[in-house]
Design a protein that fits this description.
Elements: H1 3-32, H2 49-58, H3 60-64, H4 67-83, E1 85-88, H5 95-108, E2 122-126, E3 130-132, E4 137-139, E5 141-144, E6 149-153, H6 154-162, H7 170-185, H8 189-201, H9 203-206, H10 208-217, H11 228-241, H12 243-249, H13 251-260
Parallel strand pairs: 1-2, 2-6
Antiparallel strand pairs: 3-4, 5-6
Helix pairs in contact: 2-5, 4-5, 5-7, 7-8, 7-11, 8-13, 12-13
Length: 269
């Protein structure tokens, strides 16, 4: 192959990709309400065997995935750990911590293409509940956009991770806040889908009749009704922790959440 022919093929491929992204994907998004593709990693990152074993031991979600999707999951966990700084406050950062936190985030965003966001650049971990200077109160966790930080009490993160049927998961809760803020500001395909479906989801908070129905059935804990941000985070905790009950109790709301994060049913079966 001559150099001129190679250059022609390269520019032709680039032109085709531009057409796909600028013309075909918006049409696909409009028709199917999901991005044209989610996972594409030409240089896939792998985990060490002991890291992979942590996923096997700690994440039923990971174990339900096909071999190909497990590779995608591992790549994203690897990228997450490399992309964000982990800071311990009176606690040493251990690899197990990084894996649990990264795995939780990747699980939440697995159906979204742009999963690494710039709204935070560090994860701060305290051994237990900590005193926040923001509102002069003790916290178990928070997303602080000003500091570009997600903060966790490790005791409470572990409790939420280990107890998988009480619909309380600190990691999912705080990362849901991150995702919410990101998708309100971004215009990438996954964020567009998220925002469209969020507008349907939030009706269950703002519409009095729908809100009353939720409260009467009592599936969501009362903290969900504090504001729209807590509403979404609590709902996503329920979505991942007790999906069969959620789907049976509030099938339409469940469907909106699944579309919102482009979640595949086979992950939950």
């Amino acid at each position: 192959m001559t150099e001129q022919l190679f250059i022609s093929i390269l520019f032709g491929t680039l032109f085709l990709l531009i057409i796909i992204f600028r013309v075909l994907e918006p049409a696909y998004l409009l028709l199917f309400n999901k991005p044209l593709y989610i996972h594409w990693y030409p240089f896939s990152k792998k985990l060490k065997s002991n890291q992979r074993q942590i996923l096997v031991n700690e994440f039923p979600f990971y174990n339900r995935l096909s071999a190909k999707r497990k590779m995608y999951f591992e790549h994203r966990v690897n990228k997450f750990i490399r992309n964000y700084q982990f800071i311990g406050k009176e606690i040493a950062i251990m690899e197990h911590m990084q894996m649990l936190i990264a795995g939780t985030y990747v699980m939440l965003t697995f159906g979204m293409r742009n999963y690494l966001v710039s709204l935070f650049n560090k994860i701060i971990i305290y051994p237990s509940s900590y005193f926040s200077m923001v509102n002069q109160q003790y916290h178990k966790g928070e997303f602080n956009p000003g500091m570009k930080a997600v903060v966790f009490s490790w005791d409470d993160f572990l409790l939420g991770h280990a107890t998988s049927n009480d619909n309380i998961n600190l990691g999912l809760h705080e990362f849901s806040h991150v995702l919410h803020f990101h998708c309100l500001k971004s215009n990438d395909p996954s964020a567009i889908v998220f925002f469209d479906e969020f507008n349907e989801v939030i009706k269950y908070y703002t519409d009095q009749n729908l809100n009353n129905e939720l409260r009467q059935k009592g599936y969501f804990r009362l903290y969900a009704y504090e504001n729209q941000f807590e509403f979404l985070s609590v709902i996503l905790e329920h979505f991942f922790e007790t999906p069969p009950i959620f789907k049976t109790t509030h099938p339409q709301l469940y469907a909106h959440i699944a579309k919102m994060i482009n979640f595949k049913e086979e992950y939950l079966n």
